User: Which sequence fits this backbone?
């Protein structure tokens, strides 16, 4: 006898077996009164009740949810970045690769989040802008930590966070620590690539400046990728990460220009003009410059 679950009727047509009369939810736990529920685990009451529009405008909810969800993604990004930096410092590269790849994908999510905010028109934003007072994304302490971990160190950027000593401590910790790229260059040094002490033992407070010795080291890694596969992959993970970061920044600029034009930002910055200048910041310079010589 055939094991096929189908059989034919007198006309030769295939007849499928009757579906079970059991309900699709018959196996589900429907009574969770005495157990931890989905909402309990995720603290959804707190999250879903954290939106408090100040204006009578319909579009303010979009503005709030957009920025709150971005901050949640940034929380995960920082969590993964810090862990990846620790992995690289401890020579655990496979673990670091996984986390850096995840951060790049988080940035893709943040890029697409701007698509939703871009549905807000200039008149709609202008209607809620007075209610924002001086609050601004420029004041995001998580974003500042991300920039510091990525290597864009600037002591002036500590100032907006002084009003909250607890948050200031987090930002200052990121400012004081070696950046992701610093740890990658220290790894190159441990692997025998000749790098100057001014790179390997520098002042972590200072923004990184490109050095020809570092470019030569990365060139060596890429020219011998078969023998240096893990360092080569590290270079590509960093390049992918900065590529995603640039797209995130660029989409931010274009969305701001679309919604407010060239008005000053609520936090006092020059808005689009300031954001465009930030597009010129390069986090891992030698990984880009050495490609011309390959």
Assistant:
């Amino acid at each position: 006898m055939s094991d096929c679950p189908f059989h034919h009727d007198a006309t030769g047509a295939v007849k499928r077996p009757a579906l079970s009369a059991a309900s699709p939810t018959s196996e589900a736990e429907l009574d969770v009164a005495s157990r931890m529920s989905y909402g309990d685990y995720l603290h959804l009451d707190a999250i879903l009740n954290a939106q408090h529009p100040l204006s009578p405008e319909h579009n303010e909810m979009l503005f709030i949810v957009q920025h709150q969800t971005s901050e949640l993604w940034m929380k995960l990004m920082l969590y993964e970045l810090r862990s990846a930096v620790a992995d690289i410092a401890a020579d655990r590269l496979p673990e670091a690769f996984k986390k850096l790849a995840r951060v790049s994908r988080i940035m893709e999510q943040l890029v697409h989040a701007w698509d939703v905010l871009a549905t807000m028109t200039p008149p709609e934003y202008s209607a809620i802008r007075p209610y924002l007072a001086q609050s601004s994304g420029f004041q995001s302490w998580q974003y500042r930590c991300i920039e510091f971990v990525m290597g864009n160190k600037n002591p002036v950027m500590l100032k907006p966070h002084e009003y909250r000593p607890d948050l200031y401590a987090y930002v200052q910790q990121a400012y004081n620590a070696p950046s992701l790229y610093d740890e990658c260059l220290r790894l190159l040094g441990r692997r025998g690539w000749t790098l100057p002490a001014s790179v390997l033992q520098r002042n972590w407070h200072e923004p990184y400046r490109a050095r020809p010795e570092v470019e030569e080291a990365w060139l060596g890694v890429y020219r011998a990728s078969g023998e240096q596969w893990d360092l080569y992959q590290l270079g590509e993970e960093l390049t992918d990460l900065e590529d995603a970061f640039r797209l995130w920044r660029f989409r931010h600029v274009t969305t701001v220009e679309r919604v407010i034009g060239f008005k000053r930002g609520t936090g006092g910055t020059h808005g689009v003009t300031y954001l465009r200048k930030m597009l010129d910041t390069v986090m891992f310079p030698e990984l880009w410059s050495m490609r011309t010589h390959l």
The chain has a mean pLDDT of 88. Residues 235 and 287 are 7 Å apart (CA to CA). Strands lie at 7-8, 14-15. The two ends are 65 Å apart (CA to CA).
